[in-house]
Structure formats: C-alpha cells, structure tokens
Amino acid sequence: MRYLLLILFILFNTIAIVVTMTQPLTVSYFSLRVMFVGLSFVLTIFFLLLRKSKVTTYLSILSLMLSIVHMALIAHSTYIYLY
Predict the structure, then answer these.
(1) Greatest extent of the chain over all pairs of C-alpha atoms, in Å
(2) Could you report the per-residue pLDDT of 11-44, keeping only the tens digit for each?
(3) What does the alpha-carbon distance between residue 54 and residue 39 come to, in Å, rounded to a whole number?
C-alpha cells in the first residue's frame, strides 16, 4: 500500500509540475493544489520516518523532493499572480 501511495504522489506531483511549467502562471485550482501538496508532503515525511525498506525510503526521498519543487512552484505562481 505504501508503494502505491508513494508512486501516486510521485506521478501526480510530476504531472502538476509539468502542467505548471507549460501553462502560464495562474492560481487556478489553487486550494486543490495546496491541499494535495500538503498531504503528499506530510505523508511522505511519515513514510520516510517509518523506513520499512530501501525501496520505500528511496520512493519517499523522490516524492519529498518533488513535493518541495511543487511547493516552490505554487509559491512562485502565487507571488507572480499577486504582485
């Protein structure tokens, strides 16, 4: 189950990052994006702290990096939209 959740987080974060990079910076679906990145960030840290296997640890690290990049893109698009 952990593998599936981490792979889904990696997949959805990657898709969101690609969509954010290819389209002009807007805040469309802002609350949905913030909730998703917050959930994926917290659960990824939780899975990283559990350390059940090497695969889970590697997937957690990859998901954590993608979540941080996604957070940065959300913050950047919000800054551009507001200012």
Answers:
(1) 45
(2) 999 999 998 888 876 767 888 889 999 999 999 9
(3) 22
